[in-house]
Amino acid sequence: MAAEPLLRLRGVSKSFLGARGRRVDAVADVSLEVARGEVLVVAGESGSGKSTLARLVLGAEAADSGTVEFGGRDAARDIARVRRRCSMVQQDPYDSLSPRMAIGDIVAEPLEAHGIGGRAARRRRALEALAAVGLEPAAEIAARLPHELSGGQRQRVAIARALSTGPDMIVADEPVSMLDVSVRAGVLGTLAGLRASRGVAILYITHDLATARHFGDTLALMYRGRVVERGPVARVLASPRHPYTRALVDALPSPAWRPRAAAPAAGARGDGGGCAFRPMCAHAVPECARVPRLERRGGDWDVACFAPLGG
User: What is the rounded average pLDDT of the residues 244-251?
Assistant: First the structure.
């Protein structure tokens, strides 16, 4: 019998009021699961709904419809538990840390917010979290202010803060996009090490398929609020079935570089309904006038397309 997933989204949707009073579907009918210790990569261009999805998972936004379950329980009915067991690492290490707080106090802050331990215990756990992400000597780092650290070190502090409560899952929203290329691998290596040593599941939000290739287990591609393809990272990137995924993969740099078709811009949704990618798709068929549902296309691979590549 398969184990209960740590996180399960069932038909989750969220819309916002856009220009001219029109409702815009930021997330539309998304169903996803994350197992304990799994790294699920949610990827897509800006505006695809990735960050809204992360906020729905953390309870920062309420879904218009559908359910978010964490540990087999309705997350909306137990937000305090979710926020203790599911932590977040934000995109910008410069803005996410208070410039006036010592590093040790920043890392211990979630413990105080959740009423975990006394002052001495929180200090000890903060130092342990700093050491766990490779910031040593931890006591010396704890006494510094954020501006005294490099960008990569600051992001490790953000990871330590997320780790301090002993979470089951970390939601990492573009955690390396603001960092120099030279330090990205180190930060992702830290997250991978926590997954390996502590069994922490990771929901990794990114627009960068190059990092997803080396970091994730499962890849979910979003376009205009919907998941259009989902499956094992290596297999999806090696042989995409959805035309949008294919376009993104073709735009990735390659050691044996040759000119390729650029990935299409997100563009307008079009006014005819149906598949949002249809106006940019060279493989559109008449059925694309309807919205395709995410369907199993073999084993553990799902595609939302009436004419998937490869049949």
Answer: 91
